[in-house]
Amino acid sequence: MWSYIGETMNNLLHQTAFFNLTWGNFVMIAVACIFLYLAIAKGYEPLLLVPIAFGMLLVNIYPDIIASPEETSNGVGGLLYYFYQLDEWSILPSLIFLGVGAMTDFGPLIANPISFLMGAAAQFGIFAAYLIAILLGFNDKAAAAISIIGGADGPTSIFLAGKLGQTGLMGPIAVAAYSYMSLVPIIQPPIMKLLTTKKERAIHMDNLRPVSKLEKILFPIIVTTVVCLILPTTAPLVGMLMLGNLFRECGVVRQLSETASNALMYIVVILLGTSVGASTSAEAFLNVSTIKIVVLGLVAFVIGTTGGVLLGKLLCHLTHGKINPLIGSAGVSAVPMAARVSQKVGAEEDPTNFLLMHAMGPNVAGVIGTAVAAGVFMAIFGI
C-alpha cells in the first residue's frame, strides 16, 4: 500500500510543470511578468499587453496549449492553437481594422489633407528596415514581414507575415510590433524633443475646419475604391478599416457601429492577444533571429518617427510656422496613442496648446499608409 501511495505521489509530482521547464521558460515567464507590470501598473496599452503577456505566461508553463493536432495523442490541438490559426488566416487582423475604423474619426485627416504627407513620411522606417534586414541575412519575404514593425501596427504585421508565408517569425514580429505600440510614450518623446526646438514645440495651430457629414461618408468609399484599384491586395485591411468607418459615419447602422467598435473589437483583441503571446515559447523566441527582429523593429520605429517629425519641420518652415512639427511623429499607426504623445509633448512646452485633433490626421494617415506599404510588398512578391 505504501509503495502504491509513493508511486502515485511520484507520478503526480512529475506531472507538474517544474520538471519540464527549461531556463528559457523561466526567462520568458519573467518577461511576461514585466509586460503585465507595464500594462497594469504603468497603463501601457493594457488592452493589448495584458492578453499578450498572459498568453506568453501560459505557453511557457504549459506548451501544449498551442500544440497542433499532429502533436497531441488524441488528435485535438490546444486551445490557443485554434486562436492562432485565425491569425495565420488573416481573419483577426482584418477584424481589428474593422473595429479601428468604427472607433476612429477621420475628420481631422479630411480637414487637413496635408496630414497624408506626414503619415507617408513615417512609413520611411518600414522600407529602411527592409533594406537593413536583407543586409543582416534575412530573405526578402522575411525582411518585408519584419519591416512592417516600423509602422507600429500589430495587425498589419501579423497580416503580412501570414500572407508572405513567414508564420515561423510571426510570434516575434507580432510581439515586437505590439510592444513598440505599447511603448510609444517612452520611445517617441526623446526623439521628438531632440529634433525640434522649444519654439517649434510651442506652436499653436489654427482650428480645423468643420467637416460635413457628406464628406465623412464619401471618404471611406473613395479611399477604398482608389487604394484597392491600385493595390487590390490591401482590400482585407483597407476595406475593413473603411467599412468600419462607414458604419460610424453613415448614421443608419448604429447597431453595427456599436458592435464593431465595442463587443466585436474586444473579443478579437482577446483572441489575437492571447494567441500572439502563446506563440512566444522559449524555443521559438530565445534565438538570434528574434533578437535581430526586436532590434530591427526598434530601428524602423525610430526612423519612422524621425521621418514624420522631419517632414513636420519642413512643412512648418514652408507654412511659416503654421504647423507644429510634433504632429509628424503621429504618422506611425499606433492609434490613438501616438497622437496623445504629440499632445503631451506639446503641452509640456505650453499647457494651453491643444494638438490632439491635429495629430489625429497623420495618425489615421499612418494606419492607411502602413496597410498600403504591406500591399506594396505583396504586389512585389506577387501575392
How would you describe the overall organization of this protein?
- The protein has 383 residues and is mainly α.
- The protein is built from 21 helices and no strands.
- α3 packs parallel to α17 and α5 packs across α17.
- The N and C termini lie far apart (65 Å).
- The model has no long low-confidence stretch (mean pLDDT 88).
Task: Give the helices and strands, then pairings.
Blueprint: H1 2-14, H2 23-40, H3 46-61, H4 79-88, H5 91-103, H6 107-111, H7 115-121, H8 124-135, H9 140-147, H10 154-163, H11 167-182, H12 184-195, H13 198-201, H14 213-230, H15 235-250, H16 254-261, H17 263-278, H18 282-285, H19 288-318, H20 337-349, H21 356-380
Short overview:
This protein is mainly α and 383 residues long. Helices cover 72% and strands 0% of the residues. The longest helix is centred in the last third of the chain and has 31 residues, at 288-318.
Number of helical stretches of at least 4 residues: 21
Q: Major sheet, described briefly?
A: none
Total E-strand runs: 0
| Beta strand % | under 5%
> What value does the Rg take, in angstroms?
22 Å
H/E topology pattern: HHHHHHHHHHHHHHHHHHHHH
How would you sum up the global shape? Answer: globular
- Low-confidence sequence ranges: none
Report how far apart the termini are. Answer: 65 Å
What is the share of helical residues?
over 70%
Derived from helix and strand composition plus strand pairing, the structural class reads mainly alpha
Mean pLDDT: 88
